[in-house]
Design brief:
With 202 residues, the protein is α+β, with helices and mostly antiparallel strands. It has 3 domains: 60 residues; 31 residues; 87 residues, Immunoglobulins (Immunoglobulin-like, Sandwich). Helices cover 37% and strands 26% of the residues. Helix 1 packs antiparallel against helix 2, helix 1 runs parallel beside helix 3 and helix 2 packs antiparallel against helix 3. The two termini are 35 Å apart.
Amino acid sequence: LRKIPSREELQKLIEETEAIDLNGYTDRSVANLEAALQVAKAVAGDETADNQTIAKVYVNLETAVASLEKAETPKPNPKPDNKGGKGSRSVNASNSYGAAGVVSAAQNVSTQKAHVVGDTTVNFTLKRGSAYCFKMTVVNGNNQTPSFTVGNGSVLKTQFVAKVGNDYYYRVYATGTPGQSTGVYTTLPGQNAVKHCTVTIG
């Protein structure tokens, strides 16, 4: 059993998370943390958020902090040549399995059109002055890069954050006046724009 965290405890976790030095961690884990942090901040600032929502974003943020990965590249190389045979096999097996999985998935869905899947598909309110991070995943895209736009640039300002594999992270800043809203869109080369959600300034 676990006590449901209060809004104050969520705010404290947000402050602790913002104090973390993110240098030296992998782009993917940092981007995931930033996304969880933005959601948590949006919920903490939403006076209508219920306890269940607060608990969910609290746990998500805790998990994102615990999942931060150090970006260490030099260490794995020397070991496989010496006595790291077992470790080497597990690493290679993992890589080859991943590659095989990608290839077979691509073969199975080769007839499907390239498209973008967003991590946020519900409309929400973002407090003026706050920011939110979207993760957009390109499926069947063959390294196509989506353009990320909003319907009204005076309501939300956009910023590219990071690219990790087929995942693209974009941040929006709420610069409009409360009550204004605009759609969030992605467009792949040669395709029409696809709307993912509507953001309203709170």
